[in-house]
Description:
Shape: elongated
Largest sheet: none
Helix content: over 70%
Mean pLDDT: 84
Number of strands: 0
Strand content: under 5%
Distance between the termini: 35 Å
Radius of gyration: 24 Å
Low-confidence stretches: none
Amino acid sequence: MAAGRRRLGRSERAQGAAATGRRAVGSGFILVARVVMLVTTVIVGLIVAAIVLRVLEANASNSIVEAVNDIGKALVGPFDTVFSIDNPKTSIAVNWGLAALVYFIIGSLIARVLRRMGVKSHPDRV
């Protein structure tokens, strides 16, 4: 045994193992929080892209434009008729923009909770 080093007792080794387990769980929560924010960002980006394509009247027969519009329509289904506005472009911008905002807020809240759980479980992170 090296000079100045002492052997850890059983309870000290158990505490070290528990801290290692907490670090692993904390890192897992933080990783999941990052994935949630990535998915949220992709969803919001797709909705915003669909809004821009519809408002600027992109060529609807283009396969990329059609795919983005279809995905956007599927994601904003419940929000599509929240506000009844006569101008169709304004209606899409407002209703679909509301959907993007709600997705962003909910995704951010979920990620924040997961991140806090991870930091609380991970004693080395502040």
